[in-house]
Amino acid sequence: MAEKTSSAEQYEFRDYCRRWLEENRPPPTETPLPQAAYEVTYADHRRYLCDWQAKCYEAQLIATDVAKEYGGHGHSNFQAIASAEVRRARVPYFINWIGLGMTAPTLLVHGTEEQKRRFLPPIFTAEEIWCQGFSEPGAGSDLVSLSTAAVKDGDNWVVNGSKVWTSLGALASWMLLLARTDRHDKYNGITYFLAPMDQPGVTVRPIHKMTGEAGFNEVFLENVIIPDHYRVDAVGAGWKVAMSTLTSERGAAAGVGAVASSESPLTAVLKVIELARRTRRNGVAVWDDPVWRERIVKLYERTEAAMQNGRRARIEALNGGAMRLPLQGKLVGSEIGQELGAVALGILGLRSSLYVGDEHAEEDGHWALAYMNSYTGTISGGSSEIQRNILGERVLGLPKTK
Amino acid sequence: MAQPRDFGFDEETGMLKDGARRLFEQRQPLVQLRARLAGTEDPYRGSERPGWHDAATWQEMVGLGWHQLAVPEEAGGVGLGLVAAAAIQEEIGRAACPTPLTGTLQATFVLIEAKALGHLAKVAEGTAMALAVTGEDGSLGADSTDVVADGSRLSGTSWFVQDAGKADGFVVAARAADGIGLYYVARDAVEVKPDRIVDLTRDQGRVVLDGCEAETVAAPGDGAAVLERALPALLTLVAADIAGAAEWQLQTTADYAKTRVQFDRPIGFFQAVKHPIVDMMIAADETRSLVYNAACAWDHDRDDAVRCARLAKASASDTAAFCANRSTQLHGGIGFTWEADVQIYHKRQMHSQFLFGDGAWNRQRLAELL
């Protein structure tokens, strides 16, 4: 890492990011991009998004603070600025969000020197797309009960089992894999691997979601070979490493690039307010109906509160402990998002039935899609119920459920 | 002007807030209050329950200069802003402390907006004040006042005066020929009739004015605008009180869930108990963040102060109701008793919920700004 950067340089960098994003905004795609990066399936979308991410990497918006020997740009305290500008510019998302959001932060902490040099650069350029192999048919919320087995065979591991809900599984060349290496030790019997997807024995089958999109997959692993030097950290340390990956996923770590979709929660609420203003039912704008307005403004209030929570989290004297507010972020954000989707459908009333492809649908079915996709937020990455366990136990010290 | 990222919460404010918490931990206002409440429990046959606060604690606060915290330096005060005042109020709420400081801080911000330096100097000298601006129907806004001004003489009744029994004087809204004005009357010049209220930590009363002589704070026609300008500070102070009390409710309920054993386990093991406690934390944290944002907006970005204060009180009102509800329910039978302190906070929160408008009211006003 370079030495601490002065704020004048930070301002200059922010202006540069803003200008670059303004001048290099890509043209829209033929078929609209899915609402979030985990739903990408079409080959033309993949090419478009990989090109876009590579270009943003070249422009130093990705891996901004990562050391040069790992493919980064070697700055310090610039990543947060770049990420904020990317979100603000409302440009297409980065397709390799798992690589950027989970693989890279995990390797930076737990990876060997060789792993960092080998894997980080193609993550940043989107030359190698990553997926996550944690959940299994029999291990969802109770992740630690996973049973996909890895058995040592000389310098290799042989893996058998299956993974599910694997976003980007059909496009990925690598998987973050949790596999059981000791059946008799639940927590210390899991090992963390970097698994190559492009080999016999790996079968990927798409799963269609309730939206009809095929954003995630089942992955079957049959005698899959992983060289031992693709193991992360010690044999049996997988659970510990996975927890640090999940912390990155829940947004508590700084990360190496903006992985969120480009629309801020506040923008989403303001769009719903606009929708209520222009939607008339029974001769009255929905916004002028006090019952609907109460529901909408409550969401506006909670969205502003979530933003102010983010601000307060960084102030030690006011945050009530380092993890108290960051651990609430995913839970609260996903539940507000879901309620917002439901309210938008309510504003549209019968017109909410018109879906993608119907010429009369509001914003080509955006709100129905957004509402249905909101369950991704409340279920994946630890469901809202699991988040409440974590908050109750780690922050408030309540007895552990398990 | 933009807000500083740190909510304007500097080291001095931090020391002030810590000092307030320590003072209340030493003084134990609820222990003292309980001694006073003995015999007053029965709403039909119990003895009268006069408003009470610990005079020694108030004197200590005055000694520390908290009463004149927000009074401008030109009127002899410390000249701190709403960030500091709200920090103290949050600790008052956490301790559920009966104190004239609550009303005095509110009056101070009204007097500042009226540029009433003479009356601010009275505050700096240690005069405890309360706002008397509400009419019989409890409507918000100065135009609800039932008091009439005839020159410098005030007649009529001011309703729902908070901590009326603790004040040395009142800032009164009254209707004159040229519109609403604000006036100051000393406690000795009026009759204070205490209300019987649910909240044990406050007193509330009617201030009856019988043609008494008053000093003008804001001329007839200016009073409503002064109150309107001060409103963001008033909303933020009440919201800060709620945030402090909600944190107490959260921590106390979590502690109870760790110690109370049923079905061979501390009840906090069960998700039907654990999850609603987490929801209390989420509500309390949303409110707290919005309170700090509102206080900082008042001090550093006044154009945005109304929006931020409406957000804070809207959130706080809902949090007050929710945390009160969950704290009693999750304490089970004991939480429903007079013995348990959760009932004291529950009633304080019920009261605070409606001060300067509940959640729905403040969201309707907020909608007009969007």
In short:
With 402 residues, chain A is of the alpha+beta class. Helix content of chain A is 42%, strand content 15%.
Low-confidence stretches of chain A: none
Arithmetic mean of pLDDT of chain B: 96
**Structure summary, number of beta strands of chain A:** 10
**Helical percentage of chain A:** 40-55%
**What sequence of helices (H) and strands (E) makes up the elements of chain B?**
HHHHHHEEEEEEEEHEEHHHHH
What's the story with the biggest beta sheet of chain B? Answer: 4 strands, mixed
Quote the beta fraction of chain A: 5-15%
Give a written overview of the molecule.
By secondary structure, chain A is of the alpha+beta class. Chain A contains 11 helices and 10 strands. Chain A has helices at residues 7-23, 43-58, 79-89, 97-110, 113-125, 238-249, 265-278, 290-313, 326-348, 366-379, 384-395; strands spanning 130-133, 149-153, 156-167, 174-180, 190-196, 202-207, 216-227, 231-232, 280-281, 284-285. Chain A has a 4-stranded mixed beta sheet. In chain A, strands 2-3-7-6 form a 4-stranded antiparallel beta sheet, with no helix packed on it. In chain A, β2 and β3 form a beta hairpin. Chain A is globular, with a radius of gyration of 22 Å. Chain B is α+β, with helices and mostly antiparallel strands. Chain B is built from 12 helices and 10 strands. Helix content of chain B is 52%, strand content 15%. Chain A binds chain B through residues 273, 287, 290, 293-294, 296-298, 300-302, 304-306, 308-309, 311-312, 314-315, 317-318, 320, 324-325, 328, 331-332, 385, 388-389, 391-393, 395-401, and chain B through 5-7, 9, 14, 250, 254, 257-258, 265-266, 268-269, 271, 274-275, 277-279, 281-282, 285-290, 292-293, 311, 314-315, 318, 359-360, 363-364, 366-367, 370.
